[in-house]
Amino acid sequence: MIGHTLDTLSRDALRLGIDIGGTSIKYGVVDIESGALAGPLAQLPTPNPATPRAMAEAMRELLAAVELWDAAPLPHTAAGIAFPAIIRHGTAHSAANISDDWIGLQVNELLGEALGRPATTINDADAAGLAEASRGAGRGQGGTVLVLTLGTGIGSALVVDGTLVPNFELGHLELGGGKAEASTSAVAREREGLDWAGYAARLQDYLAHVEFLFSPELIILGGGISVRHAEFLPLISLRTPVVPAQLHNSAGVVGAALAAA
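Predicted structure:
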């Protein structure tokens, strides 16, 4: 999604976005006015184990790479970091696929020091949801937008009139006597060998439940399975429009940069 060349960009609008995952760290420079990447979407392996010290070193490594790019952000601008944890006021209150040493740490301070600039940390599902709701499939949509990421579990983000409701964990809703993501995630479909009709029936029950609870104006479905939306979305029947995500791999990076802005 490289939408501009440097000569059409104001460097004041550029922010570094970082998306930390269990196996890789994606990063890029984002034009926050358009939501477009101003350069490549790059990545490096997530340290194993992903301790705070190892992650800080990875931040220094990626910053050194970014500073060589033509579209490097200005040194004083904040970086945004999508982080796999519940984040409250910059502090991690959980740790998913990273070291438990992060729990209770001030992530903004630790990673901001490594990056040599202010850092704004946001839950990874929240980052992707914020990007999709404001710069992706939900661009221009007012009211309540619900973004659901179907993968190993179910990530979720709720955006109301452009404002994110943080740490929204709808994958943990009870459905059929268990957590919804245990039966309705993309991995659950593969694990149980469900055909698309069978999976659509489960997704129908889950989406109807969240529609009843939150009455959104739009539901956006992301995750790798969203590229196969033609196989199952026509089988879903709700009052609310349901559309596939648009930003795909860049959503976390874009959302993190928007949060920093």
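Summary: Confidence is low (pLDDT under 50) at residues 1-5.
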